[in-house]
Amino acid sequence: MKLKVLGLLFASVFVGAQNIQNNPGSNHGNKFEQLGTILPTPNTYRTASGAPGNQYWQQRADYDISAYLDEDKRNLKGSETITYYNNSPDTLEYLWLQLDENQQSSVKNADYPSSSTLPKAANIDRLKTSELPAKDDGYGVNLEKVTDANSSPIKYVVNKTMMRIDLAKPLKAGEKFTFKVDWNYNIPNRMEKGGRGGYENFPEDGNDLYTMTQWYPRMCVYSDFHGWQNHQFTGRGEFALVFGNFKVSMNVPADHIIGGTGVCKNYDQVLTSAQLARYRQAENSNEPIEIVTLDEAKKAEKNKSKERKTWKFEAENVRDFAWGSSRKFVWDGMKVLIPENNNKVMAMSFYGKEAYGLYRKFSTKAVAHTIKTYSEFTIPYPYPVAQSVEASNGMEYPMICFNYGRTEKDGTYSEAIKNGMLGVIIHEVGHNFFPMIINSDERQWSWMDEGLNTFVEYLTEEKWDNKFPSKRGPAWTIVDYMKLPKDELEPIMTNSENIARFGPNAYSKPATGLNILRETIMGRELFDKAFKTYAQRWAFRHPEPADLFRTMEDASGEDLDWFWRGWFYSTDPVDIAIDKVSIATPDYDATPKEATEVKYKTDAPALNEFEDISKVRNRDEKIKFYVDGDKEVQDFYYRYDRGEEKVDTSKEYTLKAPATDKLSPQDKSQGIKNNITAYQIDFKNKGGLVMPIILEFTFEDGSKLNDKINVQIWRSNEQKVSKTYYFGKKVKSIQLDPMKETADIDTSNNYWAATSSTEAPSKFQIFKQAQRETARGGASGKVNPMQAAGKKN
User: Fold this and answer.
1) pTM of the prediction?
2) Whole-angstrom Cα distance, residue 272 to residue 621?
3) First to last CA, the chain
4) What domains are defined for the chain?
5) Is the peptide bond before 133 cis (omega within 30 degrees of 0)?
6) Which segment of the chain is annotated as a signal peptide (predicted)?
């Protein structure tokens, strides 16, 4: 009982100091205020909980398209019939379509100029491109005719990359309108002109590889939150698109192989009998089967058929359609079962001989791994197909994406190329979920597409390989960006076209923020439930940022407005410093707790080594998997035989574990009972962005203890706070944020160590005085230490 009183007496002394220090005064800003009117007002379409409202609506557009690929002229000719459904409560006088290929034109592009300066040197071609007025380079969409269902001409206006169709009579709520557009365009060499779609020529064999993306006039989104999303396409901000059903026919050279969005409906007409038999075999195989073999692809490269074939595809409830076509393609596939919805998916890859050594080993397995992992964290993958096409770039569309990953000419490759290829495949396949299904407005908010996808990409890379060299997601990887001067930064909540450092802002910072939420602020259980709830609520719908912010709070019970305000709406960095450590030491004998030893079967390294917290915790999950007595771990969740050594579960490893990895409430309120030493740690918020305070104490006997102080400690004073601890053994050092979880930009002020000159002023006389006050029952009017029992440190 006496020791308990002494612990409380320590508390009364230091709590008094803290109350003075935490006086808000002018130090209280708005970091913990609610977002309030920053977010749009909830309504019947979008609720305050973040869920779609009971009157939520969205438009629909169905497409029937015929395309003719002229390989000699490198021209694509198309005819499409669009049926547009007005599910809104509004009457529409006109419709807007996107003409993305106009961005490739020298005269039809969006005309978003950038600042320019005189070059130090320029060749003739460079000077020609500067001629005024600009000469038409022949690229962009050529509209042949636009008619209604009765073949009557429709008036239309083209404004750069947007096309407005003026309706003869308004389209009322609940009505549909069918019209037809005939068009063509010259296919650009995307290796020279850039962009996402086009052709790549291979001089060694004289063949082309076509990526047909953004290739047809596409409906813009008309929504409750934006009206028509008809912002010009500049090549950066991507797309806002409408869900619908597609029927697409593609007439191509007879020896071309096509991979496209959806399911091919006539493989029996376009494949040889041997290829069709292999496809049927792949549909039931757990390992990739070559449907078109390397030998067949090499033979087709040489023969170059002049015959033609038509491939027919159908896709339901998708927002876009893309395809790849080439006689160079090797094609492999395997089945993937998504357990959450029992969906049998064909995972497939298409690639030339230049990528064979990498893609044949890894691509389809990475596709399978990706859709299974994303299904766990978001929604079950709903489509029948998932494809990766090697095309020396990276871009995504429903059920198909284009990635890079070629070997050297002798078939060898580096680890960097392999991991880069795996990362881009996971990223682009992952885009099936964000934004192809959870269909955010990419033109306005790139981060809702790229940032959310990059976050789940990181989780997926981790489950592919615990040592995968992820470059985006771990908190410490964003530090160099966060420490840049403020005039080089924008908030995440910035329109796509206005971001100076697009990669860190749209990809890395939002992904890192979500990882910090998951690992450090909310915890995995709360975060995963809330994030999955967001995905389920907004699958096949059009979410906005407020819908994500509100859902994450609604499903978790956590007030996160301070985090959205700091991480998404400001450019403040994290820089929390240990400013001062004060010590009080009474004279008692020490009886420290002994550390315990715990034996696990694991191949994990020592947990005290610095690594990203996600990697460490994933290995902890792996340890638990063994301890629970389950069978051999199969690569965390799913293992495909990738040639790596399997885990040897027969070995036992001994890890040194501390007596406790977190301070108990008893330790916090009373102190460990013998040889109590009190430590008051003063912290400064130098960066401006508040975060939880994470501490690792190392004691003189070599043991360690961890504690995490909730971010709410900053709510009364956002500039400085103090925290007091009581231990039964001497602290040798204190490390702030030992696992680099918070993206702290300056770790030089995160460490304190006791030295021979460290002062430890005795508070013994203070305690004697307090005891005398206790004996008199607090007659002096001072605080009775027993009355302080309910006070928290």
Assistant:
1) 0.86
2) 48
3) 19
4) 16-45+445-571 (1.10.390), 57-112+132-188+214-243 (2.60.40.290), 244-434 (no CATH), 597-660+785-789 (no CATH), 665-765 (2.60.40)
5) yes
6) 1-17
